[in-house]
TrEMBL record, chain A:
GO CC term (a single one): plasma membrane
Protein name (Swiss-Prot/TrEMBL): ABC-type polar-amino-acid transporter
Location in or out of the cell: Cell membrane
Species assigned in the record: Streptomyces pilosus
Top EC category: translocase
CDD domains in the record: ABC_HisP_GlnQ
Automatic annotation (TrEMBL), chain B:
The protein's name in its UniProt record: Glutamate ABC transporter permease
Residues covered by the ABC transmembrane type-1 domain: 17-214
PROSITE patterns associated with the record: ABC_TM1
SUPFAM superfamilies from the UniProt entry: MetI-like (SSF161098)
GO biological process: amino acid transport
Membrane topology, record value: Multi-pass membrane protein
Similarity comment: Belongs to the binding-protein-dependent transport system permease family. HisMQ subfamily.
Length: 258, 225
């Protein structure tokens, strides 16, 4: 039994972790995701960029089914995304998510935020969970704030706690939905540094962002979306120096010239 | 001036108010539990539960409490033979029937107060909880309801004060609480105004501190965002 699952892991380790096939989604009349095909390999860092309203946040949220899709398929580690219920909860535990607005649990301390999922979902005992939480909080540089409440922290600190909270579940893949868009400029770097470290450590990451610097330095691949479609995919070097599509050229000319 | 009060010792004035307090406490606990469950139903993803919660609230809160309390006696007890485990003790049986009626009625208001509290919790809180792999019950119990409760302590205090005063309706089925005693006194004594003042004061003594305490508590426990 154990051997079988180990063998399966080995096969999966060489393959693709997240696969989206002809995914479509509508918000009313708006066709927000149009025939999206996207494959993310284990250990890969994919940055999704594009103008506002292009569907990149929605794409990110469909991967752990915070948004449902109308057609197509999404598989994670070889398993299709289950419907609402126990199976889905189990899968979500394996997919870390970091939100634009942090979404730390406002009535719980920083430490409790990071232990909650470990204790209630992973069924770890409290002491082991706290140990891991403190180690992670130290790793993202907010260890000294463990006993505080989220509202007492700066935005940058809150977002780093949110990253620690997601990492505490030992996820297979991390989703970042515009993690720096709600931050004051001077706090963006402290969050990006944590993400860069994570990328260097080999975490599989899907990052929706407007931070082109991060895309250049940390991404293996840039996915450019516009109007609900993936318009272009390339390595960061190639994409930023020599975009192929007009839409990407137009987008880059607007954001890189000021 | 208050000599007439000494004519009453079964129940005495304090004894009658003690029954009022007991009615209030049992009904408050019961309606908090039942009201929370109703609120959970009203926000659940299961359409059948949502439908039941909505139907219950809209039916029960629009029926006069007197009708509900009288129904527990003439309907549940007399027609359906519900004795609430107290077949031989009529006082206890009607006390329990009154609590049942008060819980059924008050829970509808508790449910709506809690539901409005749930609506004050940003949707991102529940999303973050779901993203960690918590199931619906855990999301509600661990993340949403604790924040919702803190934001509705004020409205719940209103419901509790209303409940305290609503316990007087139990007199209609013969529960010997404060209003029951008052009715007896008014029939027997001449000092009608004084009797009214005594009982009004009694209820203010019960409800005023409750309101002040819960108001203080709601400020203390408010969730900072």
């Amino acid at each position: 039994m154990t051997e079988v699952s180990v063998a399966k892991e080995d096969v999966a380790a060489t393959g693709d972790l997240v696969v989206l096939k002809s995914v479509n989604k509508h918000f009313g009349a708006l066709h927000v995701l149009q025939d999206i095909d996207l494959t993310i390999a284990r250990g890969e860092v994919v940055v999704v960029i594009g103008p506002s309203g292009s569907g990149k946040s929605t794409l990110c949220r469909t991967i752990n089914r915070l948004e449902t899709i109308d057609s197509g398929s999404i598989t994670i580690d070889g398993k299709p995304l289950p419907h609402e219920g126990k199976e889905l909860a189990r899968l979500r535990a394996d997919v870390g998510m970091v939100f634009q607005s942090f979404n730390l649990f406002a009535h719980k301390t920083v430490l409790e935020n990071v232990t909650l999922g470990q204790v209630k979902v992973r069924k770890k005992d409290k002491k082991a969970a706290e140990e891991r939480a403190r180690a992670l909080l130290d790793r993202v540089g907010v260890g000294a704030q463990a006993e505080k409440y989220p509202a007492q922290l700066s935005g940058g600190q809150q977002q780093r706690v949110a990253i620690a909270r997601a990492l505490a579940m030992e996820p297979k893949v991390m989703l970042f939905d515009e993690p720096t868009s709600a931050l004051d400029p001077e706090m963006i770097n402290e969050v990006l540094e944590v993400m860069q470290q994570l990328a260097r450590d080999g975490m599989t990451m899907i990052v929706v962002t407007h931070e082109m610097g991060f895309a250049r330095s940390a991404a293996n691949r840039v996915v450019f979306m516009a109007d609900g479609r993936i318009v272009e995919q390339a390595s960061p070097d190639q994409f930023f120096s020599n975009p192929r599509s007009d839409r990407a050229k137009d987008f880059l000319s607007k954001i890189l010239h000021h | 001036m208050f000599d007439f009060l000494s004519n009453y010792d079964d129940p005495s004035l304090l004894g009658a108010f003690w029954v009022t307090v007991q009615l209030t406490v049992f009904s408050a606990v019961g309606s908090l539990v039942w009201g929370t469950l109703l609120a959970a139903m009203r926000v659940s993803p299961v359409p059948l539960m949502r439908g039941f919660g909505t139907a219950y609230v809209n039916l029960v809160r629009n029926i006069p409490l007197t009708v509900i309390i009288v129904f527990t006696s003439l309907g549940l007890a007399d027609i359906f033979g519900v004795t609430m485990g107290a077949r031989d003790d009529f006082d206890l049986m009607y006390f329990r029937l009154a609590v049942l009626g008060l819980v059924a009625y008050t829970a509808a208001f508790v449910c709506e107060a809690i539901r409005s509290g749930i609506n004050t919790v940003p949707v991102g809180q529940a999303e973050a909880a779901r993203a960690l792999g918590l199931n619906f019950g855990q999301v509600l119990r661990l993340v949403v309801l604790p924040q919702a409760f803190r934001s509705v302590i004020g409205p719940l205090a209103n419901v509790l004060i209303a409940l305290t005063k609503n316990t007087t309706v139990a007199a209609t089925i013969g529960v010997a609480e404060a209003a029951f005693l008052m009715k007896g006194m008014i029939e027997n004594e001449a000092q009608t105004l004084l009797i009214g003042a005594v009982f009004a004061f009694g209820f203010v003594v019960l409800t005023l501190p409750t309101g002040l305490f819960l108001n203080w508590l709601s400020k203390r426990l408010a969730v900072k965002r």
